Structure formats: structure tokens, C-alpha cells
Amino acid sequence: MKFLKAGGLSLAAVMALNAAGYKLPEQSINSMALGAAYVAHTTGADTAYYNPANMAFMDDGQYVEAALTLVHLPSVDYEGAQYLKTSTGIIALDPADGSSKVENIPVGHLHYVSPRFGNWRFGMSVAAPGGLSKRWESPVQKLSAEEFTLKIVEFNPSFSYRVNDQFSVGGGVRIVYADGKVKSDGRDIRPFPVPLKRDMEGDVVAFGYNLALAWHPQNDLQFAVTYRSNVDLDLEGNAKLYTNVAGKFTKIYDGNADVTVPLPATLAVAAAKTFNDSLTVELVYERTFWSKYKELDFNYDRSLPVFDKPIDKSWKDSNTYRIGLTYLYSDRLTLMAGYAYDETPVPSRTLGYELPDSDANIFSLGFRYKQSEHLEWGVAVLYDHKKKRTISFPENENGIDGTFSKGGALLTTVGFQYKF
Q1: Coil, strand, or helix at residue 92?
Q2: I need a labelling partner for 59 at 20 to 30 A (CA). Which of 16, 37, 143, 299 fits?
Q3: Distance linking the first and last C-alpha atoms of the chain
Q4: Contacts from 93-97 at CB under 8 Å and sequence distance 24+?
Q5: HSE, side-chain direction, 13 A CA sphere, residue 331
Q6: What pLDDT is attached to residue 385?
Q7: Comparing C-alpha atoms, which of 334, 364, 359 is closest to residue 345?
Q8: Which H/E stretch holds residue 20?
Q9: What is the CATH number of the domain that holds 314?
Q10: Tell me, what's the pLDDT at 131?
Q11: Cα gap 417→420, rounded to integer Å
Q12: Could you tell me the residue range of the domain that residue 156 belongs to?
């Protein structure tokens, strides 16, 4: 039953998978328009989130930004076969084609930067660093991923301290809350129904920290390093598990369930250069330390051999390369565009239907318009294009032998900033 157990589900799995394949580093108008190439040259209230050290260099006053993002997730298509390992041997289901449902998820963001207190400045961000709703109705895919629905909110109070006219430091506390629901059901597989069904839900509050450095050797040249710590997610909730007992489909467990997974650390190194006081080019290298995500080990109030064996993940550290362009078209209008290449951390050996992730090309653009001395508003759009990915059995431990295509994401953000 190895392949069946590899489809074991939990909110922890959703959180971990989501943060890699459908992570949302874009949490504001500027970051969305620039494809998150927004670390060294941060200028608005969202500085509190992306580089709190830069709050020290912002003009006097208080800043507030509110934005709303609609995340559109097109369906993911799978064409190929599925192999199931049972006690009597390997069963091949061919074809095992299917498509996930289209999802539309609204996500809100809020940022604040305080006035100066000597060399100190403080900020607060409410962000949604990830979120996922992935649902499959096709029988084979329902075995491991009938529904993944997750909401994540991060509260991030932050500070900056200006060391001198060129250098500042900053940091903050990550307070992460997540809740969601996961379902799986193998009874519709034909001609070999799998008598396993799961219905799990739960939540967690976890803590971490972030650090930032900003160096402005010249007015038109900026460097930055930011670090977001690993957060261990000790998820606790309820699980209802069903299987075939004496020829009858029966609930065998209704009780507590918990699992611990890492929300991995992220390091960003960035440089920005402004030309002729109008065009700013920013380059960002981002490293996400996913190698800490080695397995999922479920715990219940009693032993459940089919459901509680550790599931191999063995993810690898991943890189993202970003470039952003900001052009001051006029005193009122600012234009922005970005590109990023995002590597997947998911190896072919452990990839599953809950997140058939692949490398991605990310394109973005947007604008800000200064309505008055105090009010500014903007719109941004980002397109995440996932590459096709072919997985082969027996290399894949989950029995997948086929090609995933389409998917990706289209994000649209509208919002405003007010300075007072």
C-alpha cells in the first residue's frame, strides 16, 4: 500500500506544498507589478514587509497601504497512467487522465509605517504569504487530492534603526496562522476501487522572525539583504478516516491528528540602480531552504498502519532570479514591470497530485498614480507560467507516469496608499 499511503493528507502538506508551488511573495501593488523584485528599492508602506531596514530612509510621515489581490488558478491537466501497489502486486490504471477545478481566491494585504522616533521607526504588515484551493473530481486524482483548501495569514510587526546616513538594520516577528480542509477518496476508481477515505481539518499559530540590512552608498545605488526564518508548523486538528472492514466501508478513526513540517527559511540578496532619476533597475537573488522538508510523519491517538507511516518528500533548496523595472513617467504616473525564473523544489521522485509543481516563468506589470499629495493608487497584474512536466514510473514513488500541463496562476491587484 505504499502508493496509497503516499497520498496521505494533512493541512501541513498543504501549507508546505503551497509555499513552494503557489507561494505569494507579492503582497502589495509594487511587489506584484515588479514580480517581487522589490527588496533594495522599497518606497511605500509595504517596506515594512519587504525590507524593514529601508523604513529608516523613507521621507517623514506615516504611510498606510491597503490592497486586494484576486488569485486565479487555472485547471491543471494530467495525461498518463497511474500505478497502484497493493499486497497482490502492481495495478496499472491507464488512462488515468484528469483535470483540477479552476479556482478564484481573494487575498487582502495591509501595511503601515510609523513616523520617526529618533533613529527608530516601526511598521506592521498583515499579509497572506500563501493560499491554495486545489480540487480534483477525476477518480484517480481524488485518491490523494480530492480537496486542498488553505487560508494563511501572517502578522508581521517590524522595526528599523538608522545607524548612519548610509546604513540601517531592521527586523520583525512572524506570527503565522493557518487553517484549512483536506479530503481524499479512492472509492470511485474503476475497475479497482480503493477503500480509503480521509476528511481532515485543523489549524496552527506559529512564530518566526525576519531580519534586514540596507546600504545606500549613493543616492542612486541601493543594496539589501533580507532573511525570513524557518517556522516549524506543529499542526493539530481532527481526522476522520475510513476503510473497508469485513466487507463494509467503515469509519475507523475520528479523533486528534498532528504533524510537524517546516515553513522554510528564505534569503534574498538585492541591488538597485537608478538612472537619470527616472528608471530604477533591481536584481534579486532568492534562496528558499526547502531541504529541511524531508518527510511528513503523521501522529494519531492510536496506531493506524495504513495512514501513519512517514511519507517521503526530500525536497531540495530552490532558487528564484528576479528583475524589476520602475519608470517615473511623470510626477504623477509610475510604470513598473518584472520578470522572474522560479525553480521548483519538488523532485520527480516524490511529486504528487496535491501539487504537480514545475519550474516557472513569471511576468508582471503595473502602475501607480498619484491622485493628490497624500493619496496614491495603482493596479498590477502577474502571470505565473508553469512548464510542462513529465513524470515516470517507477522513478516516482506515488505511481505517476504521465505529463502535467497548464496550471500556473494569474494574479490581479488593486489598492491605494495614503501618506499623512
Answers
A1: strand
A2: 37
A3: 62
A4: 93/140, 93/189, 93/192, 96/138, 96/140, 96/141, 96/402, 97/138, 97/402
A5: 2
A6: 94
A7: 359
A8: helix 11-21
A9: 2.40.160.60
A10: 63
A11: 10
A12: 2-419
Which among 235, 341, 343 has a CA at the least distance from the CA of 288? 343
Q: How many residues does the chain have?
A: 420
CA separation, residue 67 to residues 127, 204, 306, 418 (Å): 10, 25, 45, 12
| pLDDT < 70 positions in the chain | 1-23, 130-132
Per-residue pLDDT, 1: 38
Residue 165 Cα distances to 217, 269, 275, angstroms: 9, 21, 21
Contacts for 54 with CB less than 8 Å, ≥ 6 apart: 42, 47, 160, 168, 170, 212, 214, 224
Q: Domain count of the chain?
A: 1
Q: Please name every residue paired with 187 in a beta bridge, in sequence order, or none if there are none.
A: none
Following DSSP, what letter does each residue of 340-378 receive, concatenated? EEE-----TTT--TT-----EEEEEEEEEEE-SSSEEEE
* Beta partners for residue 243, in sequence order: 196, 250
To which H or E segment does residue 47 belong? helix 47-50
Q: How many CB atoms lie within 10 A of CB 60?
A: 7
Pull the grid cell for residue 385.
507560467
What's the whole-model pTM score? 0.90
Q: Specify the residue for cell string 517546516.
A: 262
C-alpha cell at 332: 504623477
